[in-house]
Amino acid sequence: MRHRIPGIVGGTGQKARDDQIPSGGTPLGFRSDRRSADPITMRRTSLVMGLSLLTLTGCADDRATQAALATFDSFQDAVFARDASTARSLVTGESRQVIDAMPWAEVTSRDRLIPVDSIDQRGCYHIEVRDPNEGNALGYYVVVRERGKLVVDLVATASLSARPGPVSTEPPQFELQELQAIDSHKIEEFGRQRR
Is residue 75 situated within a structural domain? Predict the structure, then answer.
């Protein structure tokens, strides 16, 4: 006999009828006699419990990524309000020096970044943003947990976004210069120390 579990995939969403309940069992297929447990029912029960846990885990991840997005939005709000103390409280300890040196007029004259997505990188969140000032170019900001609080890591963001600069392939050039009196004095002093 096929058992239907109400509200579960394949179920009817209605209460189980008596003809769907195994003898000596309950609507979910549990038997009152533990020794006569049905292997199919046990697998089904394990599947239901596993799916429930998976759903709960997915919800927790979704809440965390939403919290990371909210932290980034709060950070942008503080920057565009030119509120240095709030901005400092929303960044990591080593990022605070960036806030202290922030060119507020230049930064606030630009359009706000548009958060697109939050990607969980094992507890470190990469906030995917579009920059309307750069033709909607894609970029990332890093949000981490520091002392139990989600904060923006501007140092990690800079290293994530860094691009290598041009590399010179020319050998270094040395220019001959005439020795100054102080240079002669340093050379003599070095010679005396070596003896």
Answer: yes
